Amino acid sequence: MIRKIVIALLIFTNALLWLIPSNVVQLISRNRHILLGRYSVERMSLLVVLIPITIFAIYILRANAQNLKKRIFQVILALFVFAIGFVFSDALLRAMRSPRYHLDEMRHRPELQQYKVLMADIPEPARTYPNLQPGYAEIACTLTIDSRGFRNLQNLEQADIVVLGDSFTEGSHVSDEHPWPVVFGQATKAKVYNLGMSGANPRDYLIIFEKIAQHLKPQWIICMIYGGNDFRASKVDVPMPDAIPDQDSESSKSKSQVKQASESKETLAQKFRNYYKSSPIVLNCKQFMINYLGPIHSKGSVAGAEIISWLPIEVAHHYYAFQPKDLMDRYNTQAEFEQHPNWLSVANIILQLQQQCQAKDIGLILVYAPTKPEVILPLVEEQLPWDQVQKFSQFAKSKLPPAPEFRRCLMENLGVQEKVLQEFCLQKSIHFVSLTTPLRLAMQQGQQVYFTYDQHWTPLGHIIAAKSISEYWQQIKK
Asked: Could you tell me if 87 and 131 lie in one domain?
């Protein structure tokens, strides 16, 4: 009797999990894939995995005294054979696949490669915003990688200017002729070498400078700091000075937190989780579900869709979308940001980069690349439905004040990261260029400087960035 109850509970639990959908509106707001019109990829994976587990459990529970041990042995053997097959197949597939990046001494791409892809500015998930709008025109992209693993059409043994940064510097979703370092080089006639790398962070910039940039004997280093990911990575493994100059004593707790973060090592559970997530078998299974289950019921109505109905936002006849985390990155007060371990880590890296540049007699320019909300919100503040914007933002931070107070706090703190970085550079005598105002003016004038459904710049955005940086550089080099 007990076994029958357990079996019934197992079946009921499985059925219940299938009946309860994921938060579809939240998944759309975060640009996540939705399967069968109701489940996240993670939720669907769990439901699929639970099916054989439940079958094995029922198979054992239905055994009698004579064949119980036999059935347990059969289940264990089946799981053992599956595990061995998974490990060997996974290892074989890992050995066969070509990596997108090398992560040995520094992050870089496979050397001497060329990729061609058609960039379509559309949401990646099949189920997306109910108010879908056209994006930027398609771009036939060519991505050429040099012998060092970076995006350059030719290798240079010496460069006038070396640029450091992430995907905004490397040039995500644009072709070889579009990234701002290329446009900058054409405008100034200087020899520019691009060491920007997608997915890199300030720690990587410092390593790339030490490994490559300084050996090119440049006169200038231009380092671009992106207002999004560059301030999100809390674990930055760099030596911490005894004190950050001109920081008050209240920052000691935050500095201690940075030290603990940088000193912490990856646990065995984290290593296993990362290994599992990077498994070719797991990735292919997820992609299979996305391809075949993603389009199913992707056009149906969504309960609570009014929370995302204001996206994409229209500015001068072009449209822009972003995620809740992009707003919440802008929500901290100046005092909170200045004490945050993320900022303290970045500040220390900038100081180390400055010191190494000074030791080599290299000029340093820091460029701030703003996120979409920093550029857009001041242009559309009065037309936004702030009740819905507040609910949208709660997908990233649950406890937020009512809409009027939320609006006031967000708009007051929108430029805090840039302000703190600019004041820091002024204090340390580091050249600083902000791209926020030039991009905002261009957007206001009807130029689409960001893609609609991606966080990166269009070719027009790269032109604006190159123009602003070159004008500043032309002034100071005199």
From this structure: no
E strand map for 155-287: 161-164, 192-194, 220-226
User: Could you give the CA distance from residue 185 to residue 375 in angstroms, rounded to a whole number?
Assistant: 26
pLDDT at 272: 85
pLDDT of residue 277: 87
The answer to whether the Cα torsion of 394, 407, 233, 149 is positive or negative is positive
Beta strands in 76-145 (DSSP E): 114-119, 139-144
**Is residue 321 classed as helix, strand or coil in its secondary structure?**
coil
Q: Which CATH number do you get for residue 360? A: 3.40.50.1110
Q: Which token pair is 152?
A: 């350059």
Residue 178's identity, in one-letter code, is: H
Whole-number Å distance between alpha carbons of 470 and 411 = 30
Query: In terms of DSSP H, where are the helices of 227-381?
Result: 252-263, 268-277, 280-293, 324-328, 334-339, 341-359, 372-380
Does residue 103 sit within a domain? no
Q: What is the pLDDT of residues 50-85, one digit of tens each?
A: 999 999 999 999 999 899 999 999 999 999 999 999
User: Are 20 and 124 within one domain?
Assistant: no
Q: How many CB atoms lie within 10 A of CB 301?
A: 7
- Determine the length of the chain: 478
137 and 166 share one domain: yes
Same domain, 190 and 59: no
**Residue 19: which residues within 8 A CB-CB, separation 6 or more?**
none
Q: Is residue 307 part of a domain?
A: yes
Residue 106 domain-assigned (yes or no): no
pLDDT by residue (tens digit) across 246-284?
444 344 444 444 444 444 456 888 888 888 888 999 999
Full strand arrangement of the beta sheet holding 363-369: 192-194, 161-164, 220-226, 363-369, 431-434
**Shared-domain flag, residues 60 and 164:** no
Tens-digit pLDDT profile for residues 449-465: 999 999 999 999 999 99
Q: List, in order, residues 6 or more apart from 55 with CB less than 8 Å away.
A: none
Say how many domains are in the chain.
2
Angstrom distances, CA of residue 418 to CA of 53, 154, 401: 51, 34, 24
> In this predicted structure, what is the pLDDT of residue 233?
60
What would the two tokens of residue 143 be?
């991505």
130 in the same domain as 82: no
For tokens 């490669």, name the residue: 113
* Position 108 in a domain: no
In this structure, are residues 337 and 251 in contact, taking their beta carbons and an 8 Å threshold? Answer: no
Show the domain range for 15: 2-96
For residues 460 and 449, the answer to whether their CB atoms sit within 8 Å is yes
